[in-house]
Amino acid sequence: MSKLDIIISLGTKDCFIVKKTIRYININITDVDNIYIITDMRNKIFFSHAFLKNNKVTIIDENELINNVNFSYIKKLVDNHFCQLKVNMSGWYFQQILKMGFALTGYAKDNYLIWDR
User: Is there a contact between 37 and 58 (Cβ–Cβ < 8 Å)?
Assistant: First the structure.
């Protein structure tokens, strides 16, 4: 079987727990080639260079993954079309679009797994 990549879309609140998740991914999934974290680049401060290198992690800027699509754009769409929602779902919609959008990037290979918490 060919190696696969792991894709994790990540908000700030999950930056600490994902480190443990990544360690266990590398221990238990033997055919991992790369782990891509899709997040706001401001979250990069939570990851040391050594951690990224040792765990084969690449951070991708969520606001650059898909042309002309960022959190503000998705929030505007959600606010305009789902005004009846009692809970702001902009982040959830943005995460779903990022995970689908990954498939259209140069990062995507034939085999990858989207890891969701």
Answer: yes
User: One digit per residue, pLDDT tens: the chain, 117 residues?
Assistant: 678 999 999 999 999 899 999 999 999 998 899 999 999 999 999 999 999 999 999 999 999 999 999 999 998 888 888 766 666 788 889 999 999 999 999 999 888 999 986
Tokens of 32: 């991992």
CA dihedral 65, 67, 84, 116 (to 10 degrees): -20
8 A C-beta contact, residue 7 and residue 36: yes
**How far is it, in rounded angstroms, from Cα 70 to Cα 66?**
8
